[in-house]
Design goal:
heterodimer, A: mainly beta, Immunoglobulin-like, Ferric Hydroxamate Uptake Protein, Chain A, domain 1, Maltoporin, Chain A, 3 domains, 5-stranded mixed beta sheet, 8 helices, 45 strands, 7% helix, B: alpha+beta, 7-stranded antiparallel beta sheet, 2 helices
Chain lengths: 799, 218
């Protein structure tokens, strides 16, 4: 090859020597997207070592060229520098398309620490890698609490479901690398199946503004993005190793990224965590251990004009549920509440026994995109998800090793999106989505199915538009239609069927009659319209206002429709309702941002009115031969929620930063005028951070977390008669726990090992004073206190 | 000569480059299409057919609990307390009391715990509970205290050497009506105490909690 080049070089030299150089090269530069001429671009002529500039029509002329190769390097502000080679054998004309606005359009080429928002007028907060890495040993739900107005609803410490402005589960959409997570998200004790270590950036969008992802995001959208691809020849990685005193836990996570200038890339990431029994301030939380492993691989080619990606992720979580939360009857429940501490406390152990969950989640995805000149970008995506959930209960004999819940949920989705971005002042996106879902409830459990076998079909189409009216004003709007069909096959006990009155309304759906049970085939179709509109007005450099309106429709989920049975690991007998309508939410929000050099304020207010709001509430007891059992029923009502989230930062000095996050929210049932259940109480977080870059980027912060008592709660406490003595016992199933105040410490320092390698050491102490507390939004609050002091050491190696 | 050679060379070079580019895009597109196809193919086969799901008859159900008290002095003097819950823990239960205790008489209690939803009925007491006696414990209670009881010497050994409460002896006290008699089966208790025949526990969860009312002593 080398010889060949030399031969050519010699040949050229010889050739040129005998030639007259009279050829002309005429070039015309235009924008890839809208074809507008690019003026004032710099054209470097390599062979002549000379620069020229394109004229106002994007044209440039090179005269007196000899035959041979002409190499041009064209650069322009906002464009990617492009190098082109031409063989000159006569006068030549070339139209050259430049990738203008690359920063604006091509998110994959945005490198460094820039955050890319998914929406323009929604209340969106972006959490970046630096923040997320602090939560390497924890969950998605823990990390998201960095955003004011985001809390979590927990089952113990390992099952943490994010909650946005009081909404959780099916009202939040979670996207992992543009795949909408389908992981049986309906239940409170079903945590999102995402390994926080695979995320590089997370967008939290309050409300339903991001219509491209779905129309049922009554609460909000969480967009989890993996590492972005940098288009250059590079290999880099990161390893995090951590240990925690509480639960004697450890965590490891490694990621390795390889990419090429040509656009090819490959990433691999894996994590492992384990902890044994956690500890409340005064006792062990027996059987609260966790084992988790996860990995993600992806590869593909990202170029400006086109690209594709193949992605696969795997997650397996084995989660112990506090042993003391297993109850046989309301009397057990009452004893648990009154004893003030768990009735089963054993020595520390890594063992995970029943009750426990074992969940695996797979995501496979392929996507492809192509950009067309003067048009825009077309994206195609297919993804497949497989979610396998086992829940093990305390059982007798051989059944001990048989799960009580064994559900396999498989989901196929096809997406096609078009981004029309030829005109950057008027961007229009539209797309369609088709999805098929199949749930299989394994009969080998020997326990009647809580969730039945079903097939679900979804179809969606949306369009969104964004107009840049002037430098300070952006308007956006969107419209979406979704069709959902649920086709289930469910057994009802005849006694339940009649007790619910279904024999009168649904006798036509019975397909088989057994001695004590009925097999039914409920089929429900839902047509949903959702819409959004917003304005973002930048008054000046320091003042910005955003207004947004969102209409969202959510069909009832399978748990709300079909739940029927003892949910032992939740200590509930849960009953759904076949008669439910879809929920329709109207949400208006306003944000005001004030930014000056030392002070930043973001105030977000919202009002959300939800017609046919579905919620699960305690409903007295169901009599069984185990004694009475707590009964929870799904109910439908009209609800309103409103609140305000405040985020304030103030640079006291260059080294000292004060931050405050405060969230206030109220929710009411408009039919009964009662407060809504499970609404977070007023909470405020103050943090003071001292940092000194000169001293190995040293940083230390002290955080105060103050959670008030929820004094507005629906009182569903009930009395039950002790059948032996006739005495009435009050079951305080609704009474919230008291307020608490916790202090946390965090410190880190960064040491450079070589030019490209560094190590970050982080030490943190959570709940410094080992304060006893219970959280209203922890479902196990009846049985045990929350975590005591936890000292964490984490090493992060970047290479 | 030189010129000709050069021309051929450059042409060759040109076509070669073009070919490579063409081939690259082809490969990418082909790969993408075949990947989708493969995934669709492998997963579509795994869909369940339209067969109806199988019914589940819970295996660990307890439907019938029967306490038969027999007078040690007169085998014809029996009192039967029976609880029937056809749907087990999923539904209501009916309690019936047949016969009256004779004041001052001593009775042996015979327990029967079965799952009648299976055919033949499943003997839960002898097949499940007694083989796992170390993690089960029966407690009894009466209100008002017109009956006393003791755990027999030949009672089965329960958790931590305590007596399980399957073989018990009862003595009827004062003549009275409307006595309540309760039987509780605790699974995996943290601790048990049988010093008083009725027994008490901490921790664990209740597998049975049944109270019979209207028990009379004549």
């Amino acid at each position: 090859m080398k010889q060949f080049i030399i031969t050519i070089a010699i040949a050229f030299t010889c050739f040129c020597y005998g030639q007259t150089c009279t050829y002309t090269f005429l070039g015309e530069l235009s924008d890839f997207h809208d074809g507008t001429p690019i003026a004032s671009a710099t054209v470097f002529i390599k062979e002549h070592n000379k620069y020229i500039v394109s004229d106002s029509n994007g044209k440039f002329k090179i005269e007196n060229l000899c035959s041979g190769t002409l190499t041009l390097k064209i650069s322009h502000i906002g464009c990617e520098t492009k190098t082109m080679s031409y063989i000159i054998e006569g006068d030549t004309y070339a139209a050259i398309k430049l990738e203008h606005h690359i920063e604006e359009l091509d998110q994959i080429s945005v490198t460094g620490n820039t955050s890319k928002q998914k929406t323009k007028t929604a209340q969106e907060t972006v959490l970046k890698a630096n923040t997320l890495k602090k939560y390497s040993a924890l969950n998605l739900g823990d990390a998201l609490k960095e955003v004011a107005g985001v809390s979590s609803i927990n089952t113990g410490n390992a099952i943490v479901k994010p909650m946005i402005n009081g909404m959780h589960s099916s009202r939040l959409l979670i996207l992992n690398n543009n795949v909408r997570l389908q992981d049986q998200e309906w239940g409170i004790e079903h945590a999102p199946n995402i390994d926080i270590n695979s995320a590089d950036q997370i967008s939290v969008i309050k409300g339903s503004g991001a219509l491209a992802f779905g129309g049922d995001a009554i609460g909000g959208v969480i967009v989890v993005n993996p590492t972005r691809i940098i288009r250059k020849d590079t290999l880099y990685g990161r390893t995090i190793i951590g240990g925690q005193s509480n639960g004697r836990g450890y965590n490891m996570s490694s990621t390795l990224n390889k990419s090429y200038r040509s656009g090819w890339f490959a990433n691999i990431q894996g994590s492992l965590k384990q902890n044994g029994d956690f500890k409340a301030p005064d006792y062990n939380l027996t059987n609260s251990g966790l084992k988790s492993h996860a990995f993600t691989v992806s590869a593909g080619k990202k170029k400006f004009e086109s690209g594709f990606e193949v992605f696969y992720s795997y997650l397996d979580n084995e989660i112990g549920i506090l042993g003391a939360s297993h109850i046989g009857s309301i009397f057990d429940f009452d004893r648990a509440i009154n004893s003030g501490q768990p009735l089963t406390i054993k020595d520390f152990s890594y063992d995970i026994n029943a009750p426990k969950q074992d969940i695996t989640h797979h995501i496979s995805k392929v996507n492809y995109y192509k950009r067309f000149q003067n048009f825009g970008k077309v994206n195609l995506q297919y993804d497949y998800q497989n979610n396998q959930r086992f829940e093990f209960d305390v059982r007798r004999g051989e059944l001990r090793v048989v799960p009580a819940i064994d559900l396999t949920l498989q989901t196929h989705s096809l997406l096609a999106d078009v981004n029309l971005d030829a005109n950057l002042d008027r961007k229009i996106d539209f797309g369609i989505m088709g999805r098929f879902q199949d749930n299989f409830a394994n009969p080998d459990t020997g326990v009647r199915r809580l969730i039945p076998d079903y097939e679900k079909y979804d179809f969606g189409a949306y369009t969104t538009a964004e107009f840049q009216v002037n430098d300070g004003l952006i308007i956006d709007a969107g419209l979406r239609y979704d069709f959902n069909r649920i086709d289930a096959k469910k057994f009802y006990l005849k006694s339940r069927w009649e007790e619910r009155g279904y024999d009168a309304d649904f006798s036509n759906i019975i397909i088989e009659e057994l001695p004590t049970q009925l097999l039914t085939n409920p089929v429900f179709d839902f047509h949903n319209i959702s819409a959004s509109a917003g304005i973002k007005y930048t008054i000046n450099e320091s003042n910005q206002i955003i207004l947004n309106y969102g209409l969202a429709s959510r069909p009832p989920n399978v748990s709300e429709l079909f739940s029927d049975g003892l949910h032992h690991s939740a200590a509930r007998y849960e009953i759904g309702d076949l008669r439910f309508n879809k929920e329709i939410a109207n949400r208006v929000s306003a944000s005001y941002a004030y930014n000056v050099s030392k002070f930043n304020l973001l105030a977000e207010v919202f009002y959300n009115r939800i017609e046919d709001f579905i919620y699960l509430r305690p409903f007295g007891d169901i009599k069984t031969n185990r004694g009475p059992f707590p009964l929870w029923q799904y109910k439908q009502t009209n609800a309103q929620l409103f609140g305000m989230d405040l985020t304030t930062t103030y640079n006291i000095t260059d080294a000292l930063l004060w931050q405050n996050k405060t969230a206030f929210i109220k929710g009411y049932d408009l039919k009964t005028n009662l407060p809504l259940i499970d609404i977070p109480s007023f909470n405020t977080t103050n943090q003071i951070t001292y940092s000194n870059e000169a001293w190995y980027n040293f940083l230390v912060s002290l955080k105060s977390e103050w959670s008030f008592e929820q004094n507005e709660f629906p009182d569903f406490n009930f009395e039950i008669e002790d059948p032996l003595t006739g005495e009435m016992i009050l079951i305080e199933i609704s009474t919230p726990p008291s307020a608490y105040h916790l202090l946390h410490l965090y410190s880190e320092a960064l040491f450079s090992l070589t030019e490209k390698t560094n190590i970050k050491i982080a030490l943190s102490i959570n709940n410094i004073f080992n304060t006893s507390h219970r959280n209203y939004l922890n479902r196990l609050r009846y049985f045990a206190e929350d975590l005591g002091r936890n000292i964490t050491l984490q090493l992060e190696l970047n290479y | 000569m030189n010129t000709n050679k050069l021309k051929i060379n450059t042409n060759n070079l040109k076509t070669k480059t073009m070919k490579i580019n063409y081939f690259n895009t082809m490969k990418t597109t082909n790969f993408f299409i075949s990947a989708i196809f493969c995934l669709a193919l492998t997963t579509s086969c795994s869909n369940d057919d339209d067969a109806n799901p199988l019914p589940i008859n819970p295996e660990e159900l307890i439907t019938n609990v029967t306490l038969t008290f027999t007078n040690n002095a007169d085998a014809t003097d029996t009192i039967v307390l029976e609880s029937v819950a056809p749907d087990g823990q999923d539904g209501a239960s009916t309690e019936t009391v047949t016969g009256d205790f004779t004041s001052g008489a001593t009775y042996a209690l015979s327990l029967e715990i079965t799952n009648e939803s299976e055919d033949p009925a499943d003997d839960v007491l002898n097949d499940d509970i007694i083989p796992e006696a170390d993690e089960h414990f029966f407690t009894y209670a009466v209100n008002p205290s017109n009956l006393t009881m003791t755990r027999d010497g030949d009672d089965i050994e329960g958790p931590n050497g305590s007596k399980l409460g399957v073989n018990t002896t009862w003595v009827a006290g004062d003549v009275s009506t409307g006595n309540n008699v309760q039987i509780i089966l605790i699974h995996e208790p943290t601790s048990t105490d049988d010093s008083n025949g009725f027994g008490s526990v901490t921790g664990g969860s209740e597998d049975l909690n049944i109270t019979f009312t209207s028990v009379d002593i004549q």
